[in-house]
Write a structure and sequence with these properties.
Length: about 240
């Protein structure tokens, strides 16, 4: 059971007419309504292929690029904010993406109620809210109970890819994932950015200002006792 995590705040942000129309006309086509029962991802996408969950896709540019570049994989994208949902819906329609679907709902509840054990080949969580103030750290998405439940949804060998531009949060991510014995770090500490994760506009602006970005990539192991001690402690 995931301890209650409210890692987002629903703000009354500006939504464009195009985004509003997309939510009205395209969400029934490319969206999956939230419900408290498990779904079969193979039935949703109509095929057998690797299934990747993306949590919090912002305005969706990166998500659309990844899905376009990897048509052999299916992507389930979860987001709560309506402008971003509308933006990604328009990109799905314009680019003819058949391997991308959206659930507009709290990702924690989606994980708890809609996804079945060992159904995912990967998880992307790029630039989640770092909640930088110490009194707000409890609102961070990456928490032990969240990661533990996430592991139950991963197939053996599946990966968890996190990225952040907040160094203290990156350290927190490493610590939480390293303490989950069903996961092991694929790098000695932080991973190099994989080619499949494009550099976002936000990231490019930050790099020009001298800001760094940290990628954290772990994999699921069904028998952690079989891992060498060095693999279990890479991120220490």
């Amino acid at each position: 059971m995931i301890h209650t995590i409210r890692s987002f705040v629903l703000r009354q942000g500006r939504i464009s007419n195009a985004q509003r129309r997309a939510c009205e006309t395209l969400l029934p086509k490319y969206g999956i309504p939230f419900k408290r029962e498990q779904i079969k991802l193979e039935s949703v996408f109509g095929r057998q292929a690797p299934k990747i969950l993306e949590i919090g896709f912002g305005m969706g540019e990166t998500t659309a690029d990844i899905a376009y570049t990897h048509p052999d994989r299916d992507y389930l994208a979860v987001e709560v904010h309506t402008p971003g949902v509308g933006s990604l819906l328009n990109q799905i329609e314009t680019r003819g993406l058949t391997n991308l679907r959206i659930i507009q709902h709290d990702a924690v509840e989606v994980m708890q109620h809609m996804l079945s054990p060992m159904s995912l080949d990967g998880v992307h969580i790029f630039f989640p809210d770092p909640w930088p103030k110490a009194k707000h750290h409890k609102r961070r998405l990456i928490q032990p109970s969240f990661v533990n439940h996430l592991c139950k949804l991963l197939k053996q060998g599946a990966y968890v890819h996190l990225a952040t531009d907040w160094e203290e949060y990156a350290q927190h991510m490493i610590a939480v994932l390293n303490n989950e014995r069903l996961l092991y770090n694929t790098a000695s500490q932080y991973a190099n950015r994989p080619a499949y994760r494009p550099v976002t506009k936000f990231e490019k602006r930050g790099i020009k200002l001298g800001h760094a970005v940290w990628d954290v990539i772990f994999r699921r192991n069904s028998n952690p006792s079989s891992l060498p001690e060095t693999a279990l402690n890479k991120a220490d």
